[in-house]
Amino acid sequence: MDIWSGHMDEHAERDPVADLRRIAFLLERALEPTYRVKAFRGAANICEEIGAAEVKARVEAGTLTELNGVGKVTARCIVESLGGEEPVYLRRVEATEGIELPEAAKALRAALRGDCHTHSDWSDGGSPIHEMAFAARGIGHEYMVLTDHSPRLKVANGLSAERLAEQLDVVEKLNADLAPFRILTGIEVDILADGSLDQSPELLSRLDVVVASAHSDLRMPAAEMTPRMVAAISNPHTDILGHCTGRLLIGDPEKKRKSRPESEFDPEIVFAACAQFGVAVEINSRPERLDPPKRLLRLAVEAGCLLSIDTDAHAPGQLDWQENGCLRAVQCGVEKGNVVNTWSAPDLLAWSHDHTVRPSDASSTEVVSQ
After folding, report:
1. Does 362 score more than 50 pLDDT?
2. pTM over cut 0.85
């Protein structure tokens, strides 16, 4: 069974670990409270640790809930799964999954080969790198760019140069086990007030993909914000301009974060710079961001910008949010070939190291529209 798509042969034996993880994935996707997600993922980890034989023995003895981390709800799911039935809880969350996409958006989502903006528990993500990678591979991606935060963003546990260098070694070891899937190395580097990037040029040059985003001084006047963004875009290490307006449509009570208006800048100048320097404009798919707004996304398309449809995922279930970005892309006349994460990993890396390089496949320039 593919635990991320939920497809299973009706005659196949069910796997309670897979069912519990599928529930956690869908709860994350729906922005359910973190404690609920952790309950199912934690129960899955416990079942995996003790092994199928002991899980079955405990089901028969009625002692599942004696395990630390397995409650009544998760135990019921395990019992139903081992009995060959789809757990009622899973059936319920499957029924409320996602949105119905138009065919053009479905085609664009199917063309995406990876996600260029993801986070792990090395910064402010909620899951280890390997869990993020397993989920990305499970939904059909060929690669995932790991872009934890840079040191200036202390509230997000940004990575110092030493920790980032250590992460590169960890990723190298994981890739040996995950092949042919690849974790590409990266960072979401903070754009500082003067437009410089919050990491050393030497270390940035070692990374596969660099996403540059502003997280501070977001109310800076447009006359100052515009040259700040252009300075970051013109930096030879910048590959993608992340969530360009910094807006938050929805607050986050768990993080005590309120909604936030768009930053002010001259979009024609900023997007012209992106087109000139070959930097992609991110279509951020997080439900609370959906950044840039469609009026600005259309300007980016008209300017001839490359684009990257990313989730900015901080948990495995959030990796499925790319549908949000695909829907907005087709509404704004995006060309599939201009979306950098429709490219293969080798093509993406060729471009990230030389922004004048483009894939040679002419068929990739198909226009996706409704």
Report:
1. no
2. no
